[in-house]
Amino acid sequence: xxxxxxxxxxxxxxxxxxxxxxxxxxxxxxxxxxxxxxxxxxxxxxxxxxxxxxxxxxxxxxxxxxxxxxxxxxxxxxxxxxxxxxxxxxxxxxxxxxxxxxxxxxxxxxxxxxxxxxxxxxxxxxxxxxxxxxxxxxxxxxxxxxxxxxxxxxxxxxxxxxxxxxxxxxxxxxxxxxxxxxxxxxxxxxxxxxxxxxxxxxxxxxxxxxxxxxxxxxxxxxxxxxxxxxxxxxxxxxxxxxxxxxxxxxxxxxxxxxxxxxxxxxxxxxxxxxxxxxxxxxxxxxxxxxxxxxxxxxxxxxxx
Length: 304
Fold this sequence. Notes:
Layout: H1 4-18, E1 23-28, E2 34-36, H2 40-47, E3 52-58, E4 61-66, E5 70-75, E6 80-85, E7 87-90, E8 93-96, E9 124-130, E10 135-140, E11 146-151, H3 152-159, H4 173-180, H5 187-191, H6 202-212, H7 225-244, E12 285-289, E13 292-296
Parallel strand pairs: 2-11
Antiparallel strand pairs: 1-9, 3-4, 4-5, 5-11, 6-10, 7-8, 9-10, 12-13
């Protein structure tokens, strides 16, 4: 699932591509993705002709502010990601328009696939047609993504219930200690609770705990001052680094232009079960915590 760095990367790149554009129409072959309003015809009517005035992120949500009183909330869920480009139907399937596929070779096929030809980018189930001839599309293999059209004020109140944003300047060490105060439960589970801290999921909780040398099963109420300090520092280091590298694309996530992020080259433990820890050489392990995976080094992150 795209987490804070992937969503932030998407928002930053979409700002350059679609800000100020007008939505001329919308298409979908998986209308259940649009949760509010439930009637897709109503959704289409309400969104057609609206101008994109702002784009921002809250936790793992992308919010597209439209002219008028409504905003689009898009949560990409497990396998969804937003793409910007131009597509056309070929034999019943969406494919990037010729302008994005490179020049033909002698047998009439592209010499190399464009970024939008990546197989992960072929599951287009929702397309917004823009006034410059381009499209904003949602590619989602499993169709779990969520799209809602809501009143801006109602949406803001709902998002206010989420935890603090770890990248904001106001997210000090004192605030970090405050949100964890009186919390109980395994530290891995607490970190991915969006009501506690917004935007952190499986990838970056594993990475932060490895960097801080804390076992994912340790109860958050038993973290020492030094451990809290290390964990806070790890979060403040890992997330900006991942944004700089434009997120992690080891799985389905792709950036709006269709390309991958590069955090994979810095990923230390997540999805590295059976590999040697880059810090001590001991084999990385994987356990289940509340239905989620946790990856850790048993030597660097001992059970205490």
